[in-house]
Write a structure and sequence with these properties.
The complex is a heterodimer. Chain A is 34% helix and 22% strand. Chain A has eight helices and ten strands. In chain A, strand 9 and strand 10 form a beta hairpin. By secondary structure, chain A is of the alpha/beta class. Helix content of chain B is 82%, strand content 0%. Chain B has eleven helices and no strands. The chains are: A alpha/beta, B mainly alpha.
């Protein structure tokens, strides 16, 4: 059975009072997607096509108006508790040290929440180990504003993973980084994924990023968004940056690019 | 090392220079004492009327602190309500803006009518003047929590209460302290206005009496005392601010940092 099943999902954005907006901005319309446990997928598409919205629907942060959303066999009605999330803005809390930022989820998620005060030393050690795996050894005591943008994103990945979520939702986490830092972080993410084998949904604008990291790349149409194409990426793991420059992969990226351009012109 | 000391001393040096200039100008142009007393005469007046000044300034300080404390309690509560619940924000906020636009001097006679002239009038006026900035700042701090951060926490199963405790309150503290620095000086202004307009006991009233007696040195003495008290209170809150929320001045509040 598929881990994530999205069938025929429609979503209309609501205003802050919970009423549907009068012009009825349809963000998603008839979106379909299925994912296996442990799969890594990427969502690409024209900007404003509802990629991020689809992530939020999967996480249960917003409820679909129509259609079926199931994760691990259960229909999603409330925010899921098996999720880790990371965004373009690292949004680390400036009054906490980097380590305390990484620990934040454990102060909220059960069963850690109950043990947190008693087992603090154990959890801190866990956070430090995790920070070390992303190349932030010894940075636990630093304040977030003392870290560079790339380091902040590494810390954010740790925060997203510290409670060992089954599902990792990434919304353009590397979007604001320079090209070199971004490529570095692709490998950090790849290593974390190979190590943990959690299920990952990545929203991105960067086709190379999508192809490099994902097992399947889904292309979405212009708003209202639905999935119009899926491409399996048959690159063996662990992948290397050089692989991106092979003929097959270059053609694949070119093909994806073409589909997105067509989708954009439909707008 | 030398520069740091110079920076710390510079406001004091400027104060001293201004006082010397004041003295020289008044003496040099032979300005009548009743129009403008010299610095030395004003400072002497502080000494001469020390008992009266001490009594009235303590009364004023008392009224200020009462009004300010009530404003902090209710301002924080109101700010939390406005910052967290949008229906409260859209309903209450426009009215608060309108009320805040009223020059508070005109409210004092009404207060006198209702509660008489005295400590209560000065306290209430102090409260009215400093309530608004506290509410606004508290609300802003809570209402501007990054939506992504809310999502991160909600996706962990955090309740609204968790988000407020873990993120909302710490994040709004710098806003609150910034507003307290302004609010305490406004509370002083409010108390003195009430004392001047309503004739309630306090340094405002002392100024009024000094004015009707043409005792200009005493009026200047009063101004100096008020300024010193307000600056002192501001200083206390400025120190608390940097103690509790030093991270806010060093880090960027909007987390807009990105890249390499």
């Amino acid at each position: 059975m598929a881990f994530i099943e999205i069938e025929d999902v429609d979503l209309v954005y609501r205003n802050s009072f919970g009423h549907e907006v009068s012009d009825g901005t349809l963000a998603l319309s008839g979106a379909n997607l299925t994912m296996e446990r442990g799969e890594f997928i990427a969502l690409v598409g024209p900007s404003g096509c509802g990629k991020s919205t689809l992530l939020k629907v999967v996480s249960g942060l917003i409820r679909a108006n129509k259609g079926k959303v199931k994760v691990a066999g259960e229909t999603v009605t409330d925010p899921l508790k098996i999720v880790g999330m990371a965004f373009q803005n690292a949004s680390l809390l400036p009054w906490r040290s980097t380590r305390e930022n990484v620990l934040l989820p454990l102060e909220i998620v059960e069963p850690h929440r109950q043990n947190f005060r008693l087992d603090k030393a154990h959890y801190e050690e866990m956070a430090d180990k995790l920070l070390a795996t992303v190349g932030l050894e010894g940075f636990g005591d630093r304040a977030p504003w003392q870290l560079s943008g790339g380091m902040q994103q590494r810390a954010q990945l740790c925060r997203a993973l510290v409670h060992e979520p089954e599902l990792l939702l990434l919304d353009e986490p590397f979007g604001a980084l320079d090209a070199f830092t971004r490529e570095e972080l692709w490998d950090v993410l790849q290593a974390l994924y190979n190590d943990r084998k959690c299920t990952v949904m990545l929203v991105t604008h960067d086709l190379r990023e999508a192809v490099y990291l994902a097992d399947t790349v889904y292309v979405m149409s212009a708003r209202p968004g639905r999935v119009i194409l899926d491409k399996k990426i048959n690159m063996p793991r662990p992948r290397k940056l050089e692989d991106l420059y092979s003929r097959d992969i270059a053609d694949l990226i070119q093909d994806l690019r073409h589909h997105i351009n067509v989708a954009r012109s439909d707008q | 090392m030398k520069n740091i000391w110079l920076e710390r001393l510079s406001p004091w040096i400027l104060t001293l220079v201004l006082i010397i200039l004041w003295e020289l100008i008044v003496k040099g142009f032979g300005i009548a004492r009743i129009v403008m007393p010299s610095a030395s005469e004003s400072f002497y007046a502080i000494w001469e009327y020390r008992d009266g000044l001490l009594n009235s300034s303590l009364t004023t300080l008392y009224a200020t602190i009462i009004g300010f404390s009530i404003a902090v309690v209710f301002g924080v509560l109101m700010g939390v309500a406005i910052g967290l619940w949008r229906p409260v924000y859209v309903t209450v906020y426009p009215l608060m803006v309108a009320f805040n636009a009223i020059p508070k001097v005109v409210v004092v006679p009404i207060l006198v009518l209702w509660i008489g002239a005295g400590l209560q009038t000065s306290s209430v006026t102090a409260f009215i003047l400093c309530f608004f900035p506290i509410v606004v700042n508290m609300a802003v701090g809570l209402a501007t929590i990054e939506p992504e951060l809310k999502d991160v926490l909600r996706a962990l199963g955090a309740k609204e209460r968790d988000i407020v405790i873990k993120v909302g309150i710490p994040r709004s503290l710098p806003y609150l302290f910034a507003s307290l620095k302004i609010a305490i000086t406004l509370a002083f202004v409010g108390a003195v206005i009430a004392e001047t307009v309503a004739g309630a006991e306090g340094i405002g009233n002392l100024m009024l009496v000094a004015s009707s007696n043409f005792n200009t040195p005493l009026m200047f003495a009063g101004i100096i005392v008020i300024a010193a008290m307000a600056t002192g209170m501001y200083g206390i809150f400025a120190i608390m601010d940097s103690r509790f929320t030093g991270w806010a001045t060093r880090g960027s509040m909007n987390f807009a940092t990105a890249g390499g």
